[in-house]
Amino acid sequence: MLSYTGEDRGDTFYSDQPLVSVVIPAFNASTYIERTLRSATRQTYAVLEIIVVNDGSTDDTVKLVEQIAMSDSRIRLLSTPNRGVAAARNTGIEASSGRFVAFLDSDDLWHPTKIEKQVNALNRLSSRWAAVYTLHYIINENDEIIRPGSSDVARGYIYARHLNVKYVGNGSALLVRRNVALAIGGFDSSFAAAGIGGCEDLDFELRLVARYLIEVVPERLVGYRKHPGSMSSDHLRMGKSALEVVRRSLAANPQLPRYAIGSAIDATQKYAFWQFRQARRTDLSLLMVRPILRSDPCFVVLLVLQKGLRGIVGHLSRITGPRHRWKPAALASLLLETCAPAPSRGSPPPSVRVRPSSRRSILSWREMSKGKIGTSRPPAIRHLYSSSRRNERA
Fold this sequence. Notes:
This protein is of the alpha/beta class. The protein has 15 helices and nine strands. Helix 2 links the parallel strand 2 and strand 3.
């Protein structure tokens, strides 16, 4: 982790607009790094320095970055031994000169207006507001939109809520004041050293929102890529990492109300359960079921009902034909509508939410060049920055 050594070093050369340092950790990122860099260099906010931290890559990552850097002097390449994404981000923060730091994973994409909108949002606020995040789309290997990410947003002091909802959602959505990133110690590389790396983003965010206020731009300005080789696809590691991150965070903040602590533990155990289940680790999934049964028995009953209803649904589908789509989860939820307990006197107040923008923020490059604005409900699959794909093939 980093130690705070002083104030930020931004605005040395720019008087009108603050410098933003874009930090891109890259390990064997040759498949996507060109597209990722292109989305950074095409930002409408041009006062950028783009720091790519090569984390011991053994593929063509270095060669590709050097080629792109020849045509854009804002790109800088740093190389280190392989130490994990947290250490790579810390290297980028230490080497940065901007007032703000924006993190971009080497396989994700940004909408051209992302940095501009985030800087404008944070510049209007006092220094107590330390960071700003955006919403995202989930995309595949071909830059196609699979589905929208979560629409849940909140601003201000959101620590207790973030333990449950995890508003930021990915490592490419956050822009933070550089001095704050240093003050909270940067990213914790001990998770990777212990073999449970994966939720370092969440750990950083929790330490951030425990001490500062956070703003949101409620538009989908990030393309968060899900593919077999991504860190989030290691379900076993993600489940273990989430449990440890939340455990450490709660230990560091014992002042939280009891209901908030219980809610955070319950939400994390459920997340870990699904991760272990996807990893086909039945033993670890069952370990999560026991505490969940005590805190939320309806969740376990719903799981049992879904499993039993699968056979019934299969039989119904054979009888009624393909025109009727029977969903076990929907049927089980209908049976459990009366199972949800009434709110108790000690229940937390409802979250203060910001309504997401209805404008569709990420369009294909062709549509953006024509000035078209899509609807808030995107199709199931849509190309993101399709022109960048054509340029690569050219």
